Amino acid sequence: MNLADRCVIATDSEEVAAAATQNGAEAVLTRASHPSGTDRIAEVVAQRKFRGFDLILNVQGDEPFVSADAVKGALSMVHDEVTIGTAAVRAQPAILTEPSVVKVVVADNGRALYFSRAPIPFLREARDSGDAAALRERVRQHIGVYAYTRDALAAWVKLPVHPLERIERLEQLRPLAAGWAIGVADIEAAGPLRRGIDTEGDLAEANTKWTIFSGEPA
User: Fold this and answer.
1) pLDDT tens digits, 158-205
2) SS3 for 202?
3) Burial letters for 158-178: b for 16+ Cβ neighbours within 10 Å, e otherwise?
């Protein structure tokens, strides 16, 4: 994508690190005890050789098909008043009933109100066509990419794991529950919406797509 000065794979798996290194990528082994990917990234960023970087981008390993627009969008949300950025894309209401798909509700100022695996926004009166139309305009699928300033990242991982984070299994609820602003870039999906890898079905679909992209026989 040519967006970063340096790209590093942070992992607690020696197998993953070895595969990355063999293919010319830079990898750093971390502790296995981290409660989230952000905590893992923070361990790497704290190393002396990475201390010169002020803006950190975290692309989750379960988002192999993340778009350049999502990455650029997350980066664009970071400024003086908002030190954490992420991205979301408009989706069909069908995702509201899928717990494996993370949804986000965003305020008019572009900041996240809440992330959840539950159906948010929730349509209370299905018979009201106006409300149904409003819902369709506001369904957003969160994309697992985060941008943060160095200071925000360091402060994030000093916060205790929040009960909401544990309940939903969503790391971004830790700073959100602490009252921090998270900017959400609203991006357009290029073609069919690509999902992250959260289920066995997602993994099978991703393997098929990867075979097509790499040109290998299926």
Assistant:
1) 999 999 999 999 999 999 999 999 999 999 875 445 556 566 776 676
2) helix
3) eeeebebbeebebbbbbbbee
CATH superfamily for domain 54-212? Spore Coat Polysaccharide Biosynthesis Protein SpsA; Chain A (3.90.550.10)
Q: How far is CA 37 from CA 12, 146, 209, in A?
A: 11, 10, 24
Tell me what pLDDT residue 64 has: 76
Low-confidence residues in the chain, pLDDT < 50: 191-192, 217-218
Q: How far apart are the C-alpha atoms of 67 and 204, rounded to whole Å?
A: 20
What count of other Cβ atoms lies within 10 Å of the Cβ of residue 66?
A: 19
CA atoms of 50 and 25, how far apart (whole Å): 16
Contact 143, 88 (CB under 8 A): yes
By the 10 Å C-beta count (0-12 exposed, 13-18 middle, 19+ buried), 87 is classed as: buried
